[in-house]
Amino acid sequence: MSSITILGSVSRTTASLPFYLPSVPAGFPSPAQDHLEQRISFDELFQLHRPQLYVVRVAGDSLQGLGILDGDLVLVDKSLTPRRGDVVVACLNGELLLKILSGDQHQVILASANPQYPPRYVLEAEDFQIWGVFVGLCRAGRANA
C-alpha cells in the first residue's frame, strides 16, 4: 500500500542550473555537443511558480509498476480535474493515499500498479476526497549525494 506525507507547497527560487543541449547521450558522446550550454530554472521548466502545486513523499510500493517508488517526491496539482486513469492523492476516511483513479460513474475504485495489492472500492458511506493529480516525480540518484 502506498501512503504519502505532504511536504508542503512549492516555493519559487531564483536558482538556475547548467543545461546541456540537445541531450546527453547515454552511449558514445559526440564531441560537437561538448560546449552547447545554457542556464535553466526548474521553476520555469516545470512551471513551479503556480500556487496550486505541492509536493508529497511516497511511502510504499503499490505504484512501482508506474515507476513511482518508495521515498520518491511527487509533484501534485490540486487545480486539475481528476480523470479515470490519473494517479491522484486521495483522502479516504482520513488516510492519504496515492492511487490510480479507476471505476465508472457509479463506482470509484482506487487501484494499485502492483499485483500484490487489490483494488480498493470506495463505498458510498465512506469519506472520500481527491486532493490533487500527480504531475511530476523527483527521485534521488545517489543515496549520499
TrEMBL record:
GO molecular function: DNA-directed DNA polymerase activity
UniProt cross-references to InterPro entries, sorted A to Z: LexA-like, LexA/Signal_pep-like_sf, LexA_repressor, Peptidase_S24_S26A/B/C
Stretches of the chain forming a coiled coil according to its record: none
CDD domains reported for this sequence: S24_LexA-like
EC number: 2.7.7.7
Record keywords: Nucleotidyltransferase, Transferase
Domain named Peptidase S24/S26A/S26B/S26C: residues: 19-135
Domain of life: Bacteria
Entries under PANTHER family matching the protein: LEXA REPRESSOR, LEXA REPRESSOR-RELATED
Protein name according to UniProt: Translesion error-prone DNA polymerase V autoproteolytic subunit
